[in-house]
Amino acid sequence: xxxxxxxxxxxxxxxxxxxxxxxxxxxxxxxxxxxxxxxxxxxxxxxxxxxxxxxxxxxxxxxxxxxxxxxxxxxxxxxxxxxxxxxxxxxxxxxxxxxxxxxxxxxxxxxxxxxxxxxxxxxxxxxxxxxxxxxxxxxxxxxxxxxxxxxxxxxxxxxxxxxxxxxxxxxxxxxxxxxxxxxxxxxxxxxxxxxxxxxxxxxxxxxxxxxxxxxxxxxxxxxxxxxxxxxxxxxxxxxxxxxxxxxxxxxxxxxxxxxxxxxxxxxxxxxxxxxxxxxxxxxxxxxxxxxxxxxxxxxxxxxxxxxxx
Length: 309
Known about the structure:
Blueprint: H1 2-8, H2 13-16, H3 18-28, H4 35-63, H5 76-79, H6 84-110, H7 115-134, H8 148-169, H9 177-197, H10 199-205, H11 210-214, H12 216-240, H13 254-266, H14 274-308
Helix pairs in contact: 3-8, 3-9, 3-14, 4-6, 4-7, 4-8, 6-7, 8-9, 9-12, 9-14, 12-13, 13-14
């Protein structure tokens, strides 16, 4: 069990649900709520993240990308604690469970009333599962061609945040694009940081991430763009939503984010960036939780107005 928990990489899970938290609370601030949607959206997203971690372990393990040059904790297949055959079974099982959660999520969101929406989200769910697996698995693995950033941005940023909001409201709110893009950029930032750390070993193994393609100096600038843009967009979202002064509590998350940027700026050895992965992931989760708490202000306002009526 210990080895499976390690393979699931629990430190990546809070980051994966950040978009769900923001999208759900934004919907709640507009008087939409269904606890079943929240529950199964969280379970589906966690399933996708664990599936992605298992598939990444398998793909990099059998390709030899996880070798003695790799920085950070040893992966399950690399260490021999889990065999490739066992991991393939785990990938299949996790795919099935995740799809089951997705189907239940779609059912509770749309029931029998929105068949077209149900089909659309079912397709998105299947694509998400396939994309999680194909990141490093197979000859055409897109993570080895530099497209991993795009997958993370789309599914853990836009689809996660916009998707769960749409399931509540059955409408699109373009203002939500700001925090959705912000969560997406920060999630990509975690991947970019991982790729910066592994640049040397990835290059030797033929894993052509954006960092390998463009170099470490470019990756640093790219990282600054992702994190700073994300911070700016949340502030713009708050201004456009006319947040009150006490609703800017989400700015607390900017302290660890700024500290993280300074560490990356001063870093001369990419191998020493490993601790920053956890810092950026937790900071993103903290930002999503604080932003959700800020949106509760609107929920409490509606409750007070309702009581007064």
